[in-house]
């Protein structure tokens, strides 16, 4: 019942993820940070098999860092997204990574961007994206209320509306959510939405 | 002396030299020269053709200039068959990068990658180094127009103006004297033709002894690599006074 979603606003991109770590009927913890900061201006929200999620996201993060050390310049969001897709595609027909990713980034030349990358190496550049059962509610909510060039406040309000739908309508809804934002000043944590303390 | 250290490429001599690498550079010193000049709106590459014969099919192929990717080209000096291998390697590396990242490969990264390949032949495998020097000209969004020179040792550097092949030292010192920062592409062409005419062995320059190529941005902002046609080249040679105009009948 993991849920990750994101959207692009005016000069920023937002990624929201639930923070439950679940194994069958047991909740290990409800403050798991599933949105990895890939580099100074990129966020990667990941959902799926916990082991694969950690392995793949860390692998990508280290390769992105290595590129920057080797070449003195960071990867663009598009290049990072395509690199990730390539790795997923290469592993797909042997031992696939069961990870779904929402990649948000800010590039100086092209502004904010959002990429939808699923576990079978689908890549789409989008304005709004969502994974998991919560995506049924989040996407519908965003389809109704999203418009281009939203302010941060408007986008947070929409994210809250999505979280509210997920909480009230999903049978085993995650309890806590984390929101991270990326804009020209970098990628950082924005806030949490908690119903339980961990 | 130290002949016993010549036959193996991958060992040092007692004086700390790699003889095979040095011999490779000797081979290039006898080959047709090439000059590259960086201008504020493009990069100019000029090469001296050694193989000149009326029978040569010149319309389709070039001897000195090669396109590596849409935004990178190179001029070669040295053993042509070695150059072909490396050019193919460079082309594959550029496409592999674009396959992974869906973006053009930054110029310096391509040069670095090719030089890493060349360095391998000086350290292991027991194979001789490549007898080629390159002048790479390209454009990318990080650093704009760039010119790089690389040699058989696998070293490379970024240059404002560089010369490889025969008489490259003379050409290099001439370039040092006459190069000015912020020259235009037209001035760079003029300088390159002038320097090449002075350092080439032949008595008069004609368009069939030279190749000229430019890397620049078209009006729509895309990178263009253009080899000058023989007719246009003839006109340029006359314009800059480096050739005899055709005799009046």
Automatic annotation (TrEMBL), chain A:
Any GO BP: proteasomal protein catabolic process
Pfam families: Proteasome
Keyword field: Cytoplasm, Nucleus, Proteasome
Cellular location(s): Cytoplasm; Nucleus
Gene Ontology cellular component annotations, sorted alphabetically: cytoplasm; nucleus; proteasome core complex
Predominant localisation class: cytoplasm
Reported function: Component of the proteasome, a multicatalytic proteinase complex which is characterized by its ability to cleave peptides with Arg, Phe, Tyr, Leu, and Glu adjacent to the leaving group at neutral or slightly basic pH. The proteasome has an ATP-dependent proteolytic activity.
Subunit structure: Component of the proteasome complex. Component of the 20S core complex of the 26S proteasome. The 26S proteasome is composed of a core protease (CP), known as the 20S proteasome, capped at one or both ends by the 19S regulatory particle (RP/PA700). The 20S proteasome core is composed of 28 subunits that are arranged in four stacked rings, resulting in a barrel-shaped structure. The two end rings are each formed by seven alpha subunits, and the two central rings are each formed by seven beta subunits. The catalytic chamber with the active sites is on the inside of the barrel.
Family: Belongs to the peptidase T1B family.
Protein name: Proteasome subunit beta
Protein species of origin: Ambrosia artemisiifolia
TrEMBL record, chain B:
Alphabetized UniProt keyword annotations: Cytoplasm, Nucleus, Proteasome
Span of domain Proteasome alpha-type subunits: 5-27
Gene Ontology biological process: ubiquitin-dependent protein catabolic process
GO cellular component: a single term: nucleus
Pfam families with a match to the protein in the record: Proteasome (PF00227), Proteasome_A_N (PF10584)
Subcellular location: Cytoplasm; Nucleus
Superkingdom as given in the UniProt entry: Eukaryota
Subunit details: The 20S proteasome core is composed of 28 subunits that are arranged in four stacked rings, resulting in a barrel-shaped structure. The two end rings are each formed by seven alpha subunits, and the two central rings are each formed by seven beta subunits.
Family listed: Belongs to the peptidase T1A family.
Function: The proteasome is a multicatalytic proteinase complex which is characterized by its ability to cleave peptides with Arg, Phe, Tyr, Leu, and Glu adjacent to the leaving group at neutral or slightly basic pH. The proteasome has an ATP-dependent proteolytic activity.
Protein name, per record: Proteasome subunit alpha type
Organism per entry: Ambrosia artemisiifolia (Common ragweed)
Species classification: Eukaryota, Viridiplantae, Streptophyta, Embryophyta, Tracheophyta
């Amino acid at each position: 019942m993991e849920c990750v979603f994101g959207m692009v606003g005016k000069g920023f991109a937002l990624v929201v993820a639930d923070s439950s770590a679940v194994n069958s009927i047991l909740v290990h913890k409800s403050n798991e940070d599933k949105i990895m900061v890939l580099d100074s201006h990129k966020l990667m929200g990941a959902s799926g098999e916990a082991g694969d999620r950690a392995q793949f996201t860390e692998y990508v993060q280290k390769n992105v860092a290595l590129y920057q050390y080797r070449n003195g310049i960071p990867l663009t969001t598009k290049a990072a997204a395509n690199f990730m897709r390539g790795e997923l595609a290469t592993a797909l027909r042997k031992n696939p990574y069961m990870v779904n990713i929402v990649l948000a980034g800010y590039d100086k030349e092209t502004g904010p961007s959002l990429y939808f990358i699923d576990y079978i190496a689908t890549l789409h550049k989008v304005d709004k994206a969502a994974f998991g059962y919560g995506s049924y509610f989040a996407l519908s909510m965003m389809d109704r209320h999203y418009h281009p060039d939203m302010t941060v406040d408007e986008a947070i309000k929409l994210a809250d509306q999505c979280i509210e739908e997920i909480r009230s309508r999903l049978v085993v809804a995650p309890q806590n959510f984390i929101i991270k934002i990326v804009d020209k000043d970098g990628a950082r944590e924005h806030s949490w939405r908690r119903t339980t303390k961990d | 002396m130290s002949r016993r250290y010549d036959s193996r490429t991958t060992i040092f001599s007692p004086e700390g030299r790699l003889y095979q690498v040095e011999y490779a550079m000797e081979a290039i010193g006898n080959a047709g020269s090439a000059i590259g000049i960086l201008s504020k709106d493009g990069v100019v590459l000029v090469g001296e053709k050694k193989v000149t014969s009326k029978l040569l099919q010149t319309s389709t192929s070039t001897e000195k200039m090669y396109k590596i990717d849409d935004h990178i080209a190179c001029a070669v000096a040295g053993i042509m068959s070695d150059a072909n291998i490396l050019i193919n390697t460079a082309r594959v590396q550029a496409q592999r990068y674009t396959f992974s990242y869906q973006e053009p490969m930054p110029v310096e990264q391509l040069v670095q990658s090719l030089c890493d390949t060349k360095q391998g032949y000086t350290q292991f495998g027991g194979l001789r180094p490549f007898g080629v020097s390159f002048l790479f000209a390209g454009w990318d969004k990080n650093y704009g127009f760039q010119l790089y020179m690389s040699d058989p040792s696998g070293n490379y550097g970024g240059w404002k103006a560089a010369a490889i092949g025969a008489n490259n030292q003379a050409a290099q010192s001439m370039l040092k004297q006459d190069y000015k920062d912020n020259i235009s592409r037209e001035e760079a062409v003029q300088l390159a033709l002038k320097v090449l005419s002075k350092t080439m062995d032949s008595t008069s320059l004609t368009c069939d002894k030279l190749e000229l190529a430019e890397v620049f941005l078209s009006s729509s902002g895309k990178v263009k690599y253009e080899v000058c046609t023989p007719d246009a080249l003839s006109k340029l040679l006359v314009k800059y006074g480096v050739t005899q105009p055709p005799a009046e009948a």
